[in-house]
Design goal:
Layout lengths: L1 H11 L1 H23 L13 H12 L6 H13 L1 H7 L4 H15 L1 H13 L8 H29 L3 H5 L4 H6 L13 H8 L1 H13 L5 H29 L3
Helix pairs in contact: 1-6, 2-3, 2-7, 3-7, 3-12, 4-8, 6-8, 7-8, 8-12, 8-13, 12-13
């Protein structure tokens, strides 16, 4: 019931939660593809199509767009007393946060379907068709749960609804300090360590092996493990903060 309420509230203010995750990746596909598509002609580029190469990164970028919306509304609900009213009705904080995380996963599914369809129409390969698309959506939801947890952590730590909004530009350095738009071999060597340390790089690698080339279970497992690890660590920290700031 709580999840359904958050979904309805999100649909009433669809710009951050539902429209941005569609518009930004589509714009990025159009402009980045137009500017760099001939990079695929360079010796050593791993694929013959630049659109195919950037597809995994663009798809996994979707959860990172508009991530601050749910966290911002949580603080408004705390300050308005809505969370206290929920607790009086027997709904604990341990139920509120999972409902919010569930909303974060659900809000990106329409965008995921549209962007995957667009990329497929532009020639991005889907190894097993609809099965691959479904697997990408599941991976996207896992990454959404992990990445959005950071925004809830910042929101509850500061109790300021503007704090998660201020984190929105974080998506850009996370995207550019990865192999999502360009192979690591084409980037400066000093970036290699940062790329390896960036969890997004491993999630993109997992998405890539789902889509094309030789299927590598190790890369897929590593991407899932990294996303799950980020989620667990941030949720443990968030749970401690929630108990301290909101209560059980």
């Amino acid at each position: 019931m709580l999840f359904a309420r958050y979904l309805v509230v999100g649909l009433r203010q669809p710009v951050f939660g539902f429209i941005f995750p569609i518009v930004f990746p589509v714009v990025l596909v159009v402009f980045v593809r137009a500017m760099f598509q001939r990079v695929a002609d360079l010796p050593g580029f791993p694929l013959t199509s630049y659109t195919a190469y950037i597809a995994p990164g663009i798809i996994m970028l979707i959860p990172m767009i508009g991530s601050g919306f749910g966290a911002s509304t949580l603080i408004e609900e705390i300050q308005s007393g809505f969370v206290d009213r929920l607790r009086l009705q027997g709904i604990s904080s341990a139920q509120i946060v999972p409902a919010k995380i569930g909303f974060e996963a659900a809000r990106i599914l329409p965008a995921g379907g549209i962007v995957i369809g667009l990329l497929a129409a532009l020639g991005a390969p889907l190894r097993a068709g609809i099965v691959t698309a479904a697997a990408l959506l599941v991976l996207m939801c896992l990454w959404s749960a992990a990445y959005s947890s950071l925004f809830y952590l910042a929101a509850v730590r500061t109790l300021n609804p503007q704090a998660p909004i201020a984190l929105l530009p974080l998506a850009l350095p996370v995207l550019f300090v990865s192999q999502a738009l360009m192979p690591t071999d084409f980037l400066p060597r000093w970036l290699e360590v940062a790329i390896q340390l960036n969890p997004f790089s491993h999630v993109v690698a997992a998405a890539a092996t789902l889509m094309y080339g030789d299927f590598e279970p190790v890369r897929l497992g590593a991407g899932i493990a990294v996303a799950a690890g980020v989620f667990v660590v941030l949720q443990l920290l968030l749970r401690r903060l929630v108990l301290r700031r909101i209560g059980a």
